[in-house]
Write a structure and sequence with these properties.
heterodimer; A: mainly alpha; ABC transporter involved in vitamin B12 uptake, BtuC; 13 helices; 79% helix; 1% strand; B: alpha/beta; Rossmann fold; 2 domains; 6-stranded mixed sheet; 6-stranded parallel sheet; 16 helices; 18 strands; 37% helix; elongated
Chain lengths: 346, 422
């Protein structure tokens, strides 16, 4: 609305209005495509494309299973992708994402411990909480290591370097735990690590959904400040932001999102790194638009990947993390190559 | 006239963890003043700006903006009082110019970050002022350095601050846009009483537009006052460590500071050789300055592997060399005496003396005997490691026979220029 009003102010500048309407058209197409893809993923099954017979009990069960996987995919994809957007903005680095900073690794370690230690209801509720707490601890460790020797703010490079190191330490510990676990525990952890959108308990889904919306809303409120921080902490400070506070809050929200994703679906890579870039390439870097669009895009992308994962070699199910990179990679590369100019210039 | 104090530094020391950069700086900039902050590279100008903008907390003392301690002003209010245009801004992401300039309104927008019509008007006006309206749909990252600087200025103007500080922000601009930006700043200064603090390396340009100058040297404020008061050739030459001239333009009355071109011209006329007695790295700066001024330089006796010997080799300076870590022998002294015989002037650097290189002082003695000017670096007593302070005694003798003492590089260069031609 504001944009429209703004373009009316400079009505003589036809280029402005024209590019605005082109942006609106692009947005419209994007939403239409998302709806179509979501519908398609509801129709895709091991038996090919088709609407299951809703009248029959098995048909409605299939449909409800597909729907809950769709919800799982939407939540996980949205969390990963939005988390990536925030990490990339705050660190001003195109490689930043939950995995690179060790946040996912930390959440994974916490989740592994929970899976191995507990069973049943307690475990399923505590999983997101433990994942978040261990992710926050990991982030603090990474930040602490990176800050050593620098006065105040750590450099992005030392953050990423210490993130990569801490991340590998976390995965080594996970491997160690797996190798010493009981057969059943090992099975649970490995399945979970491969990443899958098997629906978790309704309670955990609800908790995750609440946290997810909370974190997304928080990030969206931060989004104008993320724009300002793109010019660096110093400039943001001059423009009257509590720059350090925004960075800390942003990192916490992004960590929470990563933890939600990990506790829901295990370790699914690629989404948090690449979806933000693609969305930025298509819609520009303004975070007020980018945050919701990346969340939506990430969710739908993961849902679609899951549909492929359970259909392609049916009845065998491919881990969805494999599909995200294998199928999504080339597709996104093409988009990025054509529109890199609008994504990231560094 | 209003004349509130816009910015006040009260005994401010500031810096980083291990390094104090500002040392007990005090000054006041009154509202509506146009002030230029000058000083050589690394003297603390940027640190001063960062401290003024509360990006750095003073180690002691305090900074006030319009009477309030800047450390206690809310960030949004601070942004409405003080805007900073940095040396360069970088956006890794492809924001349009429009979006970049809108960042200037970030702290005034509501919680939801939606710009009001006031915000849009201010953004538009700033872009018109800085002549970037045509660029509004372009990606900031694609613009030239000068265009980016103007966008940065537009962004800070959109903040609508009472004070603007520019950190060498106009040095990247081409001449017409530099004049334009300065014109904008002068208009804001005149019409809106905006206070301007400009970090500048162009002393002549600043002299034409500034009410006052602040001159910094090595973290301290050396001089504050009108351009005429601050732009004194002696002070500037010392602070900038080079020969500078200040002239008043007969037509405009503006002060003009020049230097480099004179030295270049002189360089071609010089046909004089200087022998430098150095060692332990004390000669490097001398070699550099003498070569820049256009002298033929020789040096020795030095030990091989000594950093001065390495520097002489790198600079193609003829040098007499002794074996590493050995006392200077009679053969090498004889060679060096021949070199001194061919030179016009002998300069002794701030070289420490021990028993091994004490004999180098005989070179200076020989020069004095053949009526050549000799210049000794000040403070031999503190560098004399010989038994019985032999070097100090020797140098006192040299001074009695007519050797002069130099204290700073610029003083030495002035002495050298005053030497009559051969």
């Amino acid at each position: 609305m504001k944009r429209l009003k703004h373009s009316a102010v400079c009505a003589d500048n036809s280029f402005t209005t024209q590019s605005h309407s082109r942006a609106s058209l692009r947005m419209l197409l994007f939403f239409a495509a998302l709806m179509a893809l979501l519908a398609l993923s509801m129709l895709l099954g091991p038996s090919g494309i088709g609407i299951p017979d809703v009248e029959s009990p098995s048909g409605s069960a299939i449909l409800s299973l597909r729907f809950s996987r769709l919800l799982m995919g939407m939540m996980t994809g949205a969390a990963l992708s939005a988390s990536g957007v925030v990490f990339q903005a705050l660190l001003r680095n195109p490689l930043a994402e939950p995995y690179v900073l060790g946040v996912s690794g930390g959440a994974g370690l916490g989740a592994t411990l929970t899976i191995l230690a507990g069973t049943g209801v307690v475990a399923s509720y505590s999983l997101p909480v433990v994942a978040f707490l261990s992710a926050v601890v990991t982030l603090m460790v990474v930040y602490g290591i990176a800050s050593q020797g620098s006065s105040g703010q750590p450099s992005v490079y030392s953050l990423i370097l210490s993130g990569v190191i801490v991340s590998s330490i976390c995965s080594s510990i996970i491997m160690f735990l797996v190798s010493t676990a009981s057969v059943e525990g090992m099975h649970n952890v490995i399945w979970w690590m491969l990443g899958s959108l098997q629906p978790v308990s309704a309670g955990q889904q609800l908790l995750s959904a609440v946290l997810l919306f909370g974190a997304l809303a928080g990030i969206w409120l931060l989004s104008p400040r993320l724009n300002a921080l793109a010019l660096g902490r110093e400039m943001a400070h001059y423009q009257g932001l509590h720059a350090d506070l925004v960075i800390v809050i942003g990192l916490l929200f992004a960590t929470l999102l990563a933890a939600i994703a990990v506790s829901l679906s295990g370790m699914i890579g690629f989404v948090g790194l690449i979806v933000p870039h693609v969305m930025r390439a298509i819609f520009g870097p303004d975070h007020r638009k980018l945050v919701p669009l990346a969340a939506l895009g990430g969710g739908v992308f993961l849902v679609l990947c899951d549909a492929v994962a359970r259909t392609l070699l049916a009845p065998v199910e491919i881990p969805v993390g494999v599909v995200t990179a294998l199928a999504g990679g080339p597709f996104f590369l093409i988009i990025l190559q054509r529109r890199m100019k609008q994504a990231w210039i560094a | 006239m209003m004349q509130h104090d816009a910015m006040t530094f009260r005994n401010v020391s500031a810096g980083y963890k291990q390094r104090k950069v500002l040392n007990n700086v005090s000054f006041t900039v009154r509202e509506g003043e146009f002030v230029s902050l000058i000083g050589p590279n690394g003297c603390g100008k940027s640190t001063l700006l960062k401290t003024a903008a509360a990006l750095l907390k003073p180690l002691s003392g305090k900074v006030e903006l319009f009477g309030q301690d800047v450390q206690h002003i809310k960030p949004a209010l601070r942004a409405s009082l003080l805007g900073v245009v940095p040396q360069k801004i970088e956006s890794p992401m492809a924001f349009t110019v429009d979006q970049i300039v809108m960042n200037g309104r970030i702290s005034s927008m509501g919680r939801w970050g939606t710009p009001s019509s006031v915000d849009h008007d201010l953004v538009e006006r700033s872009m018109i002022y800085t002549d970037v309206l045509d660029l509004r749909e372009r990606f900031f990252t694609e613009l030239s350095g000068g265009e980016q600087q103007r966008v940065a200025l537009a962004m800070v103007l959109a903040q609508d601050p009472k004070i603007i500080m520019l950190d060498e922000s106009i040095s990247h601009l081409d001449i017409n846009h530099r004049q334009e930006v300065l014109q904008i700043l002068m208009n804001l200064n005149r019409e809106k009483q905006m206070t301007i603090l400009l970090v500048s390396h162009d002393l002549t340009l600043s002299a034409g537009i500034s009410d006052r100058f602040l001159l910094m040297e090595a973290g301290t404020l050396v001089k504050a006052g009108t351009p005429v008061e601050v732009l004194e050739p002696e002070v500037l030459s010392r602070v900038y460590n080079c020969d500078l001239h200040v002239q008043q333009d007969p037509y405009t009355g503006y002060l003009q500071v020049t230097g480099a071109i004179d030295s270049l011209r002189r360089r071609q006329k010089l046909n004089r050789s200087v022998h430098v007695i150095a060692g332990g790295g004390s000669g490097i700066e001398l070699y550099r300055r003498l070569l820049i001024e256009g002298y033929d330089v020789t040096t020795g006796v030095l030990n091989r592997l000594d950093s001065d010997a390495e520097a002489a080799r790198a600079l193609n300076i003829p040098a007499v060399l002794e074996q590493p870590f050995s006392p200077v022998g009679s053969d090498t002294i004889a060679q060096a005496l021949k070199m001194v015989g061919d030179s016009d002037i002998v300069i002794l650097s701030q070289v420490p003396f021990g028993s091994g290189n004490l004999v180098n002082l005989t070179l200076a003695e020989a020069a004095l005997n053949s009526v050549k000017p000799v210049f000794l670096a000040d403070g031999i007593a503190t560098r004399d490691y010989t038994e019985g302070k032999a070097a100090l005694a020797f140098s006192t003798r040299l001074m009695q026979s007519g050797a002069k003492v130099w204290h700073s590089m610029s003083e030495l260069m002035t002495h050298l220029q005053q030497q009559p031609d051969r």
